[in-house]
Amino acid sequence: MDFGITEFLTFKLAAEHPKVIPISVFIAILCLCLVIGHLLEESRWVNESITAILVGAVSGTVILLCSKGKSSHILVFDEELFFIYLLPPIIFNAGFQVKKKKFFHNFLTIMSFGVIGVFISTVIISFGTWWLFPKLGFKGLSARDYLAIGTIFSSTDTVCTLQILHQDETPLLYSLVFGEGVVNDATSVVLFNAVQKIHFESVNGWTALRVFGNFLYLFSTSTLLGIAVGLITSFVLKTLYFGRHSTTRELTIMVLMAYLSYMLAELFSLSGILTVFFCGVLMSHYASYNVTESSRITSRHVFAMLSFIAETFIFLYVGTDALDFTKWKTSSLSVGGSLGVSSVITALILVGRAAFVFPLSVLTNFLNRNTERSESITFKHQVIIWWAGLMRGAVSIALAFKQFTYSGVTLDPVNAAMVTNTIIVVLFTTLVFGFLTKPLVNYLLPDDSSHNTGNGDKHTDPGSPREDATLPLISFDESASTNLNRAKDSISLLMEQPVYTIHRYWRKFDDTYMRPIFGGPRQENQPEC
Which residue range or ranges hold the Cation/H+ exchanger transmembrane domain (predicted)? Predict the structure, then answer.
């Protein structure tokens, strides 16, 4: 029997440390993926997500050949690994790195896209699959499954588009795509969890209201928890000033409090995604100004690094999982049936996305019609926003595994078919739509015009001098009639320019009451962030 020293050492190491080999291999592939992504940085067609998926697919093929067709996996999918360890750094970094000035100025638009849009998309996808799947011969799904499918495929992945857009050149567009992408993911997960709590055996006319009420409860409490943790962290850092003795401590307290916010949300059965996102926004808005300059710079790089590793890890796994023949063999659908079902899902994604992006954009432009300061969402912007949300990614994969598998394994043919079709849709939308994203953006926003999309902030607000932004909402030093007249003017302005007015008074409140307590530069010397 031909048994060399290499095989002996491999089997000995695998017996003593069964997880060492797969983890080592996966880390090596991660490094390879980073190198290839760097070499393809200037490519017109390929981005980090596509690179990770392709490298994962190639790695899965090699592993499949080495295992003689038994498995393409290096690591087995684990919901706990994804939701507890990989997702928090991605979402927190999204909140921490967000351009807060643009995010808060477009807050209502972002929330309408990310919340109302998810509801519209979920309804269209759920009812569309319920109507069309049986016509394709795909049966066996329950009402809960159809609603879950709606939430699974309403979750977007805007990474491809964000890697092409530039915050400085297209600040409005970048803010809308970025903000909506994060809020969309959080809303999809919250709505998915709300669907799991429906008792379908006792469905009546109040069920929809209960689902909506449950959603509002999860959404509001998760948001408030994230805000509370962010404010507590900011207050502690401002009061105790850890930087006097150790910059390491202040950076550590930020990391631990961020992760604690996510775990508290999971402990109380809330949405950890929403909590950790708003925790990141609040920490960036207040806490980052209460630490030393070195800690501020280091924190941004550390959070970005952790997020990047987690995202690459997830897309690598998607690439390797695409070659898991066990699911394909278990599936109740043939190759043609799978293509038909995945095509229906993709078509419904296109329709569901368009059903809210264009109408809500028109509504936003209408609400901002009297505000010279606000930029309108042009039709080209609307097309890019629509296209940016067509890709499906890590959250869709995780929710599909959570709904249709147990620890990544399923023996039910119908559930296996849904998992495989989710993988097909994620791969197709990420690769095909992702490849076409850069040419589309360059066509719609050529270099000579894209630089002109960010000039909205340079206009001076008519009728609102700069010093007025620092005045308190109500002054006890002024007469009641003065305060009453100010309130009447505010209500009139709110009716004429609702979006701008809300943002303007938030800035007043923030600068007058919040920053002195929780930290941050005052309005008069605040840089754009």
Answer: 30-442
